[in-house]
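User: Could you check the structure of this?
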Amino acid sequence: MAKVAVVVRILPEDVSISMEQLVENIKQKLPEQYNLKAWDEEPIAFGLKALRILVTMPEETEGGTEPLEELISSIPGVSQVEVLMVHRVLE
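Assistant: Sure, the predicted structure tokens are below.
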């Protein structure tokens, strides 16, 4: 069964938000068939950093990446969510 690998950039509401805690909150909210595979921090400006995550999800997901974007946007401390890349992968 094929999956989709999605790279998402997440901007926090404030520089004081812990990226590690944000990652944990995302992991807890992800549905069972979604997997957070990797994450890193991307410096933006003036101490602000973006969080980049790599998530795999089922290819057949209705609405594409929109459910993932909405789920991440609903997490406290998240200001903006942007999909950077989507690739089909075999697992």
